[in-house]
Request: fold
Amino acid sequence: MKDYLFFPLALVLALAIVAAAALPGRDRLSCGSVSGAGTNYQTVTVSGDDLCRMEAAGQADIDLQRSNGSIQSTIITVGAGLLGDRPERNPHFRLAADLENVYAGSRIRVTVEARPGPESGATAFEVNYSAGQEGNSGWRAFDLQPDYQAYSFTWNVPERLIADQAVDYLAIRPVVPEKSRTVEIRSVKFDRLGASQ
Reply:
């Protein structure tokens, strides 16, 4: 090949490789609402890389813990008196429309696998399932053990009385008596137990 063809072609090829490697979102995780798409909706688990779906609302920090390129857990850090009672203004997972529709009028069990965070570890944490204007489960408190344990509660998700879809959230926060506290979450599981009782 002639030099006047080879060098421009090599330059174009090198630029194409650099551009492909630098494309935005190439290695970005698909984070957003929690969905049950592709499942039978009986059990939906959020773990591993799906933990990136947690949003740090309010004045809370979320720190994704990675190992070998994959998310293993998320650490929630909150200072005393910095969060209100509304679930959507606390660290939370937003549930997609498919789960909102399936869970409306159903009894569900929520299981959170958690432990105290590595620094300023909380001795307890709280969980709240919110169905928007239709109501919420209230903050359910659990005392933490030193290592990962599964903590569960059941709740009857109300029927939708408003034609528009509500926005469902699962909020999780450490109990913070003073200064700041952390809780580490390894997984969250939603089990649909049947119609509300």
